[in-house]
Design brief:
By secondary structure, the protein is α+β, with helices and mostly antiparallel strands. The protein has 17 helices and 33 strands.
C-alpha cells in the first residue's frame, strides 16, 4: 500500500483528476488492496489531508486538478478566479487562481465560469481554461413589477433586453423597486430570486447606480486602500528636492463642475518670437507607489468614471479631491513639463522635473473665454492665448482629423434632479487647454524615447483596409471617390468634408468617416496617433483619473532620476516603474484599455437614461432629428438639439414595402422610391421615452400614419434599373429586437 505522503504527492503531480481508480492504477493495487485503499482515503479525508470524492481527490485547502472556476476580477489583463464551489472551514478563504488564457489579454469577464485544469506553482495557483461554461448565478438588474394575479416579474433595465422574467422569490422587494436578482434554479422556468433591493429606480443618482452594477465597475474602496490613502496624503513634499515654481502665475482652466484639478498651464514670450511654457500636472506617482494597496486598486479600476451625478474615482477622495488636486493658493506637488515653443508653434525642447506649484486661480472655460473676448484678461491669460495661436499654426500644419462631435451636458440641481440637457458649447478656451495638453503628451513620449525608457503609448492606428473599402463603396453611392492607392491621412478626410457644401450630406459623410476609424488603445509598441497626426503620443496629463498617465509619470521619474523614497512605514518606498511593469507593459496596457471601454459604455448608458427621463414629460412633441443609423428593421434618429437617439420602426414609415441597402445605408420605398439615408433630417414625434432603459421611440410627425418626408436634400424617385431596384428585403412589419450598441 502507498503511504499517505505518496498518495498526496501523486495527487499533486497528476496531470488529470486523481480519483480512487487512478490512484489504484498508479500503485498497481488490485482486489482487496483496492478495499484497503478506499479505507485509507476515507481516513485521510477525516484527518483533513484530502478533500473531494472518489472520482477526484485534492489536497485539503487546495484545488481539484480539474474544476469549475468563477472569474472574480481582471488584473493586468489576466483573469483571476476562485473555485465555483468552496466549502472548507469559513475561516479559510478560497484560493485565487490566475487563468492563463491563450493570446494576450483576457477574453473572460468578471462572473464568467470556466472548466479549467489547475496547478500549484511556487508563485501560487494558476489555471488553464478548458472551456467556458454557461452562466450560473449571474446577477441581473431590473425593476419589480406585480401583475394582476400578484405574481412578481423582473423588468430589465437594459434596452437590448425585451422580456421580463418571473420572480420566484421577491426577497422582501416591492413593486417598482430596483433590485439585483439571480437565477433561482438551473432551468429558466425556475425564474429569479431577488438578492438585493437598491431602491427607487427613478430617484436621483439611480441611473448611475444602474450603470455601475450593469458594467461591474468597482466603486467601493477597501479599508486597507483607504488607510494607505490617509497615510500617503501626509507625506511631506520634500521642498528641498523639488523645483520651486510657486512664483509663476499658473492657472487651471477646467469645466465649471470639475471634481478635480490635475493640470495647470502658464506661458510667457521668450523675447525671440516664441514662448516658454509650463504644463504642471499633479504628482500622483509621489503618493501612489507600485505594490501598495492604492496601486492595486487603481490598476483594477483603470480610470475614473464620470457620471452627471457622481464620479467613481480611480483613487480615494483624500488624494483625488484633496492633496492631488491643484487648488488655488495652496502648495501642491507637481510633475512639471517645461516647453520651448517657436513662433511657428513647434515644440523645440522640453524637460521634466518634480516641482512645487501654487495655482493662482482656477477658472471655468466660459469665464476664461469671457475675459479674453471682453478684453479683461490678465497678462497670464493673454500670454496663454498668444502661445496657443502659435501651437494652433503647428496643429493646422499637421492637419489632424477634424470631426464635429457634439457632447451632451446634463445639468442637475442640488437634489440630483435634471434642470437642463444641452449640447456643450465648443470654445477657444477648450482648444487652448487641449493643445497645451497635446504638446505635453507628445513631449512625454519623445522624452522617454530619448532616454530609451518604457513608454505606454496612446495608439490610434490608421483605418483598416476593410473599413476603407466599405467607406469607398459607401461614398460611391453619392458619386464621391476615395482612391485607396494613395496614402491615407487625416487631412484627406478633412479635405473630403470641406468639399461638401450641403450640411445634410456633410453630416452623412462625417458619420461614415467616423465609423471607418479604429478604436484608440494603450500599448508599449508605438504605432502613432492617426487622428492627431502624431508619430509619438502618450497620456501624461491626467494621472488622477487614468492609470496610463500614472505609468508614464513613473517612467519619467526613472528616466530623469527624480526618485524620492517614502519615509513613512506602510507605503512602498519607490515611486518609479516596478520591475513587473518594466518586464511586461503589454498586460497592464490591455487591462486599462478594457477598463476605458467599460467606462465609456457606462457613461454613455447613463446619459441615455438621463435624456430619456428628461424627455419622458415631452412624449407627443415633435423634434428636429437626424438619421444616425439605418437597419432593415428601421431607422435610428437623434434629436439634434439634445443628442438623444432612438428607433423609428420601419412599420411607421408608411404602408409600402421598404428595402434595405446595407452598403449605401439606405431604406427605400418600393412604390414611391422614398429614401431614408444616414444624415437625413426629419421631423419626428416622440412616441415613447423609457428612463429605465434609456430607450426612445419615434413616429412620423403625422401620427395618423402619414409618410415621413426626409428633409435636407431632394428625394429621387428610383425606378427599375436603379441600383436598389429589384433588391429583396423584409416587409415593413419587422419586429425590433433591440439595438446592439
Amino acid at each position: 500500500m502507498p503511504s499517505r505522503k505518496q498518495i498526496l504527492d501523486f495527487i499533486a503531480s497528476s496531470a488529470e483528476p486523481a480519483g480512487k481508480r487512478e490512484i489504484a492504477r498508479a500503485f498497481g493495487l488490485k482486489g482487496n488492496e483496492k478495499i484497503a485503499l478506499k479505507a485509507l482515503l476515507r481516513d485521510m479525508a477525516d484527518e483533513g489531508l484530502i478533500d473531494g470524492n472518489r472520482s477526484a481527490f485534492h489536497r485539503m485547502g487546495g484545488v481539484p486538478r480539474v474544476t469549475v472556476l468563477r472569474v472574480v476580477a481582471i488584473e493586468d489583463g489576466e483573469a483571476i478566479a476562485i473555485p465555483d464551489s468552496w466549502n472548507p472551514d469559513d475561516a479559510v478563504p478560497p484560493p485565487r487562481l490566475r487563468l492563463r488564457e491563450k493570446g494576450r489579454g483576457s477574453a473572460l469577464r468578471s462572473g464568467d465560469r470556466v472548466l479549467a485544469r489547475t496547478e500549484e506553482t511556487a508563485m501560487g495557483w494558476i489555471a488553464h481554461p478548458m472551456k467556458k461554461l454557461p452562466a450560473a448565478a449571474d446577477q441581473m438588474l431590473g425593476v419589480v413589477e406585480i401583475d394582476g394575479s400578484g405574481k412578481g416579474w423582473l423588468a430589465p433595465v437594459d434596452k437590448r433586453e425585451r422580456n421580463s422574467m418571473p420572480i420566484a422569490d421577491l426577497g422582501g422587494a416591492e413593486a417598482g423597486q430596483l433590485v439585483l436578482a439571480e437565477p433561482a434554479g438551473k432551468s429558466p422556468r425556475s425564474g429569479v430570486k431577488v438578492t438585493a433591493v437598491l431602491g427607487d429606480p427613478l430617484a436621483p443618482r439611480a441611473f448611475s447606480l444602474i450603470a455601475i452594477h450593469k458594467h461591474g465597475i468597482p466603486h467601493v474602496f477597501g479599508s486597507d486602500t483607504l488607510a494607505e490613502g490617509e497615510l500617503a496624503a501626509k507625506l511631506p513634499l520634500a521642498e528641498d528636492r523639488r523645483e520651486d515654481l510657486r512664483h509663476l502665475p499658473i492657472v487651471a482652466i477646467d469645466p465649471s463642475d470639475a471634481r478635480d484639478h490635475d493640470d495647470a498651464i502658464w506661458a510667457e514670450p521668450d523675447g525671440e518670437g516664441g514662448f516658454r511654457a509650463l504644463v504642471a500636472i499633479a504628482d500622483v506617482s509621489f503618493y501612489v507607489r507600485p505594490g501598495g494597496e492604492l496601486d492595486r486598486e487603481a490598476r483594477k479600476r483603470g480610470n475614473s468614471v464620470y457620471f452627471p451625478d457622481r464620479v467613481v474615482p480611480m483613487l480615494p477622495e483624500v488624494l483625488s479631491a484633496d492633496v492631488c488636486s491643484l487648488r488655488a493658493g495652496e502648495s501642491r506637488a507637481a510633475m512639471a513639463c517645461h516647453l520651448s515653443i517657436s513662433a511657428s508653434g513647434k515644440v523645440t525642447s522640453w524637460r521634466f522635473s518634480r516641482a512645487i506649484v501654487q495655482i493662482q486661480e482656477v477658472i471655468a472655460y466660459e469665464e476664461a473665454q469671457r475675459r479674453i473676448d471682453a478684453g479683461e484678461a490678465a497678462s497670464n491669460l493673454v500670454n496663454l492665448w498668444a502661445a496657443w495661436r502659435a501651437l494652433e499654426k503647428a496643429r493646422d500644419d499637421r492637419d489632424p482629423l477634424a470631426l464635429e462631435l457634439p457632447e451632451r451636458r446634463v445639468v442637475l440641481d442640488s437634489q440630483g434632479r435634471i434642470t437642463e440637457i444641452a449640447l456643450r458649447e465648443r470654445l477657444d478656451a477648450h482648444r487652448v487647454v487641449e493643445d497645451f495638453m497635446i504638446a505635453a503628451n507628445v513631449a512625454a513620449a519623445k522624452a522617454l524615447e530619448e532616454k530609451v525608457s518604457p513608454v505606454v503609448y496612446r495608439v490610434h492606428e490608421p483605418p483598416s483596409r476593410e473599413k476603407l473599402v466599405a467607406l469607398k463603396d459607401y461614398l460611391a453611392t453619392y458619386d464621391r471617390k476615395l482612391a485607396l492607392g494613395q496614402v491615407i491621412t487625416p487631412g484627406l478626410f478633412n479635405r473630403m468634408l470641406k468639399d461638401v457644401s450641403d450640411e445634410s450630406e456633410k453630416a452623412l459623410i462625417m458619420e461614415a468617416v467616423l465609423r471607418s476609424q479604429t478604436q484608440a488603445y494603450y500599448g508599449p509598441r508605438n504605432a502613432g496617433h492617426f487622428g492627431l497626426a502624431l508619430g509619438s503620443y502618450a497620456h501624461f496629463t491626467s494621472p488622477i483619473r487614468r492609470y496610463a498617465d500614472l505609468l508614464v509619470h513613473r517612467a519619467l521619474v526613472d528616466a530623469y532620476g527624480l526618485e524620492q523614497p517614502a519615509p513613512k512605514h506602510g507605503i512602498p518606498a519607490l515611486s518609479g516603474l516596478s520591475d513587473r511593469d518594466r518586464a511586461d507593459l503589454s498586460r497592464v496596457s490591455e487591462a486599462i484599455s478594457a477598463a476605458e471601454r467599460r467606462a465609456m459604455e457606462a457613461e454613455r448608458d447613463t446619459i441615455d437614461r438621463y435624456v430619456a427621463a428628461w424627455l419622458s414629460a415631452r412624449v407627443g412633441e415633435v423634434f428636429e432629428c437626424r438619421i444616425t443609423g439605418v437597419q432593415r428593421f428601421g431607422l435610428f434618429a437623434t434629436i439634434i438639439s439634445l443628442g438623444g437617439d432612438g428607433l423609428v420602426p420601419v412599420s411607421v414609415l408608411g404602408a409600402e414595402r421598404f428595402f434595405h441597402d446595407e452598403k449605401a445605408q439606405v431604406l427605400e420605398g418600393e412604390q414611391t422610391g422614398t429614401r431614408f439615408a444616414l444624415g437625413d433630417r426629419l421631423r419626428l414625434r416622440l412616441a415613447e421615452a423609457n428612463p429605465l432603459t434609456g430607450a426612445l421611440k419615434f413616429e412620423p410627425e403625422d401620427s395618423a400614419g402619414g409618410q415621413i418626408e426626409p428633409r435636407g436634400r431632394p428625394l429621387p424617385l428610383k425606378r427599375k434599373g436603379d441600383h436598389l431596384a429589384g433588391r429583396r428585403g423584409r416587409p415593413g412589419n419587422i419586429r425590433h429586437q433591440g439595438r446592439k450598441r
